[in-house]
Amino acid sequence: MDSASEAASPSVNGEVARHPCYSEAAHRYFARMHVPVAPACNIGCHYCNRKFDCVNESRPGVVSELLTPEEAARKAAGVAAQLLQLSVVGIAGPGDPLANPDKTFDTFRRIRSDVPDVTLCLSTNGLNLMKYLDQIVELGIAHVTITINAVDPDIGSQIYGWVYDEESGRKYEGREAASLLISRQLLGLKALSDKGVLVKVNSVLIPGVNDEHMPVLAGMVKRLGAFMHNIMPLIIAPGSRYEQEGRAAPPPKLLHAVQEACGGAGAQIMRHCRQCRADAIGLLGEDRSGDFTWEKLASAPPIDPAARERLQADLEEKVKRLEERQAAKAAAGRKSGSKCACPAAAASGAPAEAAGYRLRAAVASRGEGRVNLHFGYAKEFMVYETDGQNVTFLGIRKVQAYCHGKANCNGDKAATLREIIASLSDCSVLFSAGIGKVPEAKLKAAGIIPVVKPGHIEELILQHAKYDRYLRPRSEAPANPLAGT
């Protein structure tokens, strides 16, 4: 392990034990909050159209309302008083926080004063990182995410339409714009890492543009000190240039292959990202922003620091026990000669058993590592793979909820169900806490077995795999292996 990786180890000072985005185990128990105070942006990405908003959408850059720094601090305090597991408050937009420095840092100062026990987090495109490096460190912003989609300007020029540099007062375009942005991003990443700030790099996987380039990018950011690399599937905003060009999101098979390639180079790969809205509140995958309206916050009790600490200390202990169980499984896997495929190994890119039996499962979950959500209310499915002995967490598939979602906002439930089934076409089983007759029949027809059984995710998957292997002839492959991907 090189010095940069060692410095960013999750065991150092427990810096990520309560951060749901930086720890796969922590995201099952701890909540985060994004406060949308930064509307302006200084780069133009071809996949983005910040003019488009839809209440059914969940993607970066989307918000229902903008907040002033005063409102953001008041809302953070009200949420912290009621959502005791809230451990992180971040600013991720809807534009770029460092293109709105006064609002961003004023907000952080107010939250630091009003809710001193939360971790402050910042997400940025990195263009202005060096300019505001000292302020980030002085305010104790210990976690920064930089979105870096390329380290080659020729590739970057296919992703960014323009970059506005406030220092020169000039708008750059094409390769020159990409070159400026990339140089600033890499300088900022190295400087933050040198200052002891944990940096996560987000990269949007764009088929035909940066998919083959991604391992080079992963190696570069790791060498510069990135703690974690989050490779996310492209989400194309309506009205964006990429939509006009007819580009498509990467199929799951490509996303997994790229993650494996980058993890094999030594990068710690994040697989539990939800690509959250800029106003998200709650556990990852469970947005509760609707529960914290101004009317409801008006009757919020005062913050009870002791109660918050008692609960969070208990949750942190659960995180530690989970990580210990994962480590024990990893050790047992190595001892038996098989590769570990637990979530902890998945975070570092370890694949499941290279050959032989494999089963891929989709799971509807509200969190805490359990199957505990009805199929119809799932806005995402967690996808796992097992070789019959170990369970690998592969990632998240975001969908429109069947019971109240809209396929492309057209209200067609049949289309919604088709989209869900298509997104899970490589899975042979789906676990949920309940499912209606229509989706149950459609899943079966697509070769996906619906299993209604609440419980611990890994245990249920292994139980089903044991049953599946017993019934299936050895020469027969699992249903729909990588179908449609």
TrEMBL record:
Pathway(s) it belongs to: Cofactor biosynthesis; Fe-Mo cofactor biosynthesis
Named cofactor requirement(s): [4Fe-4S] cluster
Similarity comment text for this entry: Belongs to the radical SAM superfamily. NifB family.
Keywords assigned: 4Fe-4S, Iron, Iron-sulfur, Lyase, Metal-binding, Nitrogen fixation, S-adenosyl-L-methionine
Keyword 4Fe-4S: yes
InterPro entries registered for this protein in UniProt: Aldolase_TIM, Di-Nase_FeMo-co_biosynth, DiNase_FeMo-co_biosyn_sf, Nase_CF_NifB, NifB_C, rSAM, rSAM_sf
PROSITE patterns listed in its UniProt record: RADICAL_SAM (PS51918)
Classification via CDD domains: NifB (cd00852), Radical_SAM (cd01335)
Superkingdom of the organism of origin: Bacteria
Record domain Radical SAM core: where: 27-265
Pfam families per record: Nitro_FeMo-Co, Radical_SAM
Molecular function GO labels: 4 iron, 4 sulfur cluster binding; lyase activity; metal ion binding
Protein name: Nitrogenase cofactor biosynthesis protein NifB
